């Protein structure tokens, strides 16, 4: 009987030592920062403004002197399938190739493990036609944020 008890105790210690680590606990009330970087390329090379010409799929040569575009309406899906939508007032970003500081979108979102990210290239029609007072940040038409 003692032998069975000792073997059971040893098996218990072994199983405890081999216990699979639990998944990390996230506090969804705490906001974390996620930076999404946009790297513009032409074909297989990084885009460089004013540095020469590139060739498109039809063999036509072209030069790039300015590249600016908006990204907006970010949505992220966590590993449990729950979708987090970045609030409208903080999800519009102007990406400017000429300004290294304007190559990313910095988002604030609940802590967690996310598996997908989606966004809109451009500005949705609802925000684009909204009152000027609602166009703040990157959408400020006065140019203060640009």
Structure description:
By secondary structure, the chain is mainly β. The protein has a domain of 84 residues. 14% of the residues lie in helices and 35% in strands. It contains 2 helices and 10 strands. The strands form 4 sheets. Strands 6, 7, 8 and 10 form a 4-stranded antiparallel sheet that branches. The chain has a two-stranded antiparallel sheet with strand order 1-9. Strand 2 and strand 3 form a beta hairpin. The longest helix is centred in the N-terminal third of the chain and has 16 residues. It is globular, with a radius of gyration of 25 Å. The N terminus is likely disordered.
Mean pLDDT: 79
Q: Which percent bin holds the helix content? A: 10-25%
Question: Tell me about the biggest sheet?
Answer: 4 strands, antiparallel
Alpha plus pi helix count: 2
Are there runs of 5+ residues with pLDDT below 50, and where? 1-17
Rg, Cα atoms, Å? 25 Å
Number-wise, the strands total 10
- Give the CA-based shape: globular
Distance between the termini: 80 Å
How much of the sequence lies in strands comes to 25-35%
- The string of secondary-structure elements, in order, is HEEEEEEEEEEH
SS-based class: mainly beta
